[in-house]
Write a structure and sequence with these properties.
CATH topology of the domain at 30-89 and 169-230 and 246-333: Rossmann fold
Mean pLDDT: 91
Shape: globular
Distance between the termini: 66 Å
CATH superfamily of the domain at 30-89 and 169-230 and 246-333: HAD superfamily/HAD-like
Strand content: 15-25%
CATH class of the domain at 30-89 and 169-230 and 246-333: Alpha Beta
Radius of gyration: 23 Å
Order of helices and strands: HHEHHHHHHEHEEHEHEHEH
Helix content: 40-55%
Number of strands: 7
Low-confidence stretches: 1-35
Length: 343
C-alpha cells in the first residue's frame, strides 16, 4: 500500500504541476510555439534561410568553436522596411500628417505657410517638395510642445486606430510575419534583440513591445530634446522642438554605442540608411552576420530599391553583394509577407 500511495501522490503532483504550467504555456506567443524542427516556418527553404539558421547554430550551440557567450549575443534590427512596411510613406510621417490636420484649427497661419498649406489642401507631393527640411518642420511641430506622457497617449491611440491607405489594415498590422519569426528565433537562443532605427525613439517605444516583443529599453532611435519641469508640483518631461540625435546612417553605430554599449554580432536592415550599422556589426571579431531585406514583391507588397525616395537601397546593396552578406529576395524567400496574408 505504501508504494501505491506514493505512486498516486507522485501522479497527483505531476497533474498539479501540469495545470500550474498551463497559464504560462497559453501566454506564449504563437510564433514561439512553432515546431522545433522549423523556427522560421514563413521562410521558404532557400539559401537565405539556411544562412540564418547556420549562423544562429554556430554561435549558440554548446561545443561549437564559434560559441558566443549569451551576454554578447546582440542583434540589431532596423524598423521601417525591415520589420514592417514603409510604403507609400514612412508610418511616422503619416502620423505627423494626421497630427497637422488635428492641430490646424489652432494654427490659422498654416493656411499660408508651407509645407502646412499644401498638406491642408491634400497636396502631399507639394508639401514634401521641400525635402528633408519640410519633413523636419512637420515632425518638429507635431512631436513637441507636450509632455512625454501626452505624446505616448496620442501615439497609442493613433497606432490602434489609423489605417494604411492601401491595405486598409491598422498600421500595427503592417509587419512582416517572416521578420517576427526572425526576431523570436535568436531570442529563443539567448540573443537580445534591439530595434535601431532612424524613426523617433519615443514613437517606436509606444508599440515596439506589443508588436515586436522588443521592450522600450531595447529601442534606439532619433530623438528630440527634453526638458524637466514641475507642473503643479508634479515632475514632467516636456518635448522641445529641437533635434537631440539623428539615429540614421553613420548615427546608427553611434546610437548603438550610446544605448547598448556592446558590439552587435548580427544586424538586419533594408536601405542605405542601414549600411553603417551592418558594417559596424560585421567589423568585429568572430562570426558575424549581416542581412538586407530586398523589396522584390510588387504583387504581395512593393518592389523598389535604387531609385526609391522611401527606403532607397543602392550603395548598401552593392556592398552586400560584394561582401557576401545575406540578401533577402522577398518574392522568393518568403512564403507569406504579412500575418493577415497577401496585400
Amino acid at each position: 500500500m505504501a508504494w501505491r500511495n506514493a505512486f498516486f501522490q507522485m501522479r497527483r503532483c505531476a497533474i498539479l504541476s501540469a495545470f500550474a504550467a498551463l497559464p504560462m504555456l497559453l501566454s506564449v506567443p504563437a510564433l514561439a510555439q512553432a515546431p522545433a524542427t522549423d523556427a522560421l516556418p514563413s521562410w521558404n527553404d532557400t539559401a537565405t534561410k539556411t544562412a540564418i539558421v547556420t549562423f544562429v547554430e554556430r554561435v549558440t550551440q554548446q561545443g561549437s568553436p564559434d560559441l558566443v557567450p549569451p551576454p554578447e549575443r546582440i542583434a540589431t534590427f532596423d524598423n521601417d522596411g525591415t520589420l514592417g512596411a514603409e510604403q507609400p510613406i514612412y508610418f511616422q510621417l503619416a502620423f505627423a500628417l494626421d497630427r497637422v490636420k488635428a492641430l490646424a484649427a489652432l494654427h490659422p497661419e498654416w493656411k499660408d505657410k508651407e509645407p502646412f498649406a499644401s498638406l491642408l489642401k491634400g497636396d502631399l507631393k507639394g508639401a514634401l517638395a521641400g525635402g528633408e527640411a519640410a519633413i523636419f518642420e512637420i515632425i518638429t511641430v507635431t512631436h513637441s510642445g507636450m509632455t512625454t506622457d501626452e505624446f505616448e497617449t496620442i501615439v497609442r491611440y493613433w497606432i490602434t486606430t489609423a489605417k494604411h491607405p492601401v491595405t486598409g489594415r491598422l498600421y500595427a498590422e503592417m509587419v512582416y510575419q517572416p521578420m517576427l519569426e526572425l526576431l523570436a528565433y535568436p531570442r529563443g537562443n539567448g540573443f537580445k534583440t534591439f530595434i535601431v532605427s532612424g524613426g523617433g525613439i519615443d514613437f517606436m517605444r509606444v508599440f515596439a513591445e506589443r508588436v515586436y516583443g522588443v521592450p522600450p529599453e531595447q529601442v534606439v532611435g532619433s530623438s528630440g530634446k527634453l526638458n524637466f519641469e514641475l507642473r503643479d508640483g508634479k515632475p514632467i518631461l516636456m518635448k522641445l522642438p529641437e533635434l537631440n540625435f539623428n539615429d540614421d546612417k553613420t548615427g546608427k553605430p553611434v546610437g548603438i554605442q550610446m544605448h547598448i554599449g556592446r558590439h552587435p554580432i548580427a544586424a538586419f536592415g533594408n536601405s542605405d540608411g542601414d549600411l553603417q550599422m551592418l558594417e559596424w556589426a560585421k567589423g568585429g571579431g568572430g562570426v558575424r552576420f549581416a542581412l538586407l531585406v530586398h523589396h522584390t514583391d510588387a504583387e504581395r507588397e512593393w518592389a523598389y530599391d535604387r531609385s526609391s525616395s522611401i527606403g532607397k537601397l543602392d550603395k548598401a546593396l552593392d556592398t552586400a553583394l560584394a561582401m557576401g552578406w545575406t540578401v533577402v529576395d522577398m518574392k522568393n524567400d518568403w512564403k507569406t509577407i504579412f500575418p493577415f496574408g497577401s496585400k
